[in-house]
Amino acid sequence: MKKALIFICCIFLSVVIAILFGVLHNQFTFTLSNEFFTKVLFERFGFVEYGRNTPRLTVSIIGAWSTWWIGLVSGLVFAFIRLFYSSSKAMLKGISNAILIMLSITILVGLIGLCYGFLGLSNLESTCCFPLQVNNVKNFIAVSEMHSFSYAGGGIGVLIAALWQIKNLKRSNKLEFIKISEYKIHEESQKI
User: Fold this and answer.
1) What angle do CA 17, 19, 23 make, to 5 degrees?
2) What is the DSSP letter of 120?
3) Is there a smaller number of Cβ atoms within 10 Å at the N or the C end of the chain?
4) Cα distance from N-terminal residue to C-terminal residue, the chain
5) In 119-136, which residue ranges form alpha helices assigned H by DSSP?
6) pLDDT of residue 134
């Protein structure tokens, strides 16, 4: 029963963390290039008129809508793997660490994307912005790359965190097996 509660809570927590990440990510990137939002994402998400009146709120809503599902998927993956752990304490600790690993990788890869865009390495420069009228093309491209890289980072983060959990599960099971074996050997030696 305790594991089932942890399973549900961890999925919920993963969704909340993903939403907060999306909101903060979009607030940061809006500061760098508001044109990326006002000329591309507001239209894509259907906020053409409303978004211009309250741009920061709209950016937050778009961030939440864009990331909640990543939290759901990662939470399900992490919680499912941890169901195979013997204790609920190990389950909770492992899921928390997996979320931190994924979040760290997502942030790191997103920042690499931002640098990639700012350094002019992106191929978007040749195709960027047509037919849009963009004043700050360099920031527009950097923010676009950061968004793309962050999604990739989220996928890579889920994979690495899941593999890390599986590795720990195998190691934990080996230790459990060794402890049980030692206990049985000790018990047998007591009988003799």
Assistant:
1) 115
2) T
3) C
4) 40
5) 124-127
6) 83
Contacts for 33-40: CB closer than 8 Å, 24+ residues apart:
33/136, 33/139, 33/140, 33/142, 33/143, 35/132, 35/134, 35/135, 35/136, 35/139, 35/140, 36/139, 36/140, 36/143, 36/144, 36/147, 37/62, 39/132, 39/133, 39/134, 40/132, 40/144
pLDDT at 52: 74
Dig out the tokens for 65 from the structure. 């809508």
Report the chain's mean pLDDT, rounded to a whole number: 86
How many C-beta atoms lie closer than 10 Å to residue 185's C-beta? 10
Contact predicate 132/40, CB 8 Å = yes
Residues 142, 70: Cα–Cα separation, whole Å: 22
How many CA atoms does the CB half-sphere of 41 hold within 13 Å?
Answer: 23
Neighbours of 12 (CB within 10 A): 13
Whether pLDDT at 80 is above 60: yes
Residue 33's pLDDT band, with cuts at 50, 70 and 90, is: very high
Question: Are the C-beta atoms of 145 and 117 separated by less than 8 Å?
Answer: yes
Structure tokens at 102: 């994924």
